[in-house]
Amino acid sequence: MSCVRISSMIEVKIKKLEEQAVLPQYASVGDAGMDLFSLEEVFVENGKRAKIKTGIAMEIPHDYVGFIWDKSSIGINNGLKTLGGVVDSGYRGEVLVGIVNLSSEDFKVEKGQKIAQMIIQKKEEVEIKEVLELNDSERGENGFGSSGKYTK
Prior knowledge:
- The protein is mainly beta.
- The chain has one helix at residues 72-78; strands spanning 13-16, 34-37, 42-44, 49-59, 64-69, 80-83, 86-88, 94-101, 107-109, 114-122.
- It has one domain (13-122): Distorted Sandwich (Deoxyuridine 5'-Triphosphate Nucleotidohydrolase, Chain A), CATH 2.70.40.
- The chain is built from one helix and ten strands.
């Protein structure tokens, strides 16, 4: 029995706002996220936030959304975490990457450095319906550690 992979590719238009901007790119075939690159050199003090310019704008198709996520190497090795990374299909401004330096050391973002990754996903419309009661579930209201503790 053989498996056939059916892939649907969407087109995302990218506009360079600055000549030296680097277009997003996938590092490897099959990667979920395309790398976003810093347009500028930015010094991020420990415990502080920064807004990193990418120098690009994009046209994400209707019914899709771009989510900006951490680059695991920068997060794990340097303590940088991305902030608030949702790029809606109607947005045409510069893609900015918000980061916070959670480490105890300052960090210098280099111009042209991979700073985050973006995953483009299909978006679903939902109908908001106010109700007086919710259906019961097995989990109920249990949260924040109720499903077990992490052990080494």
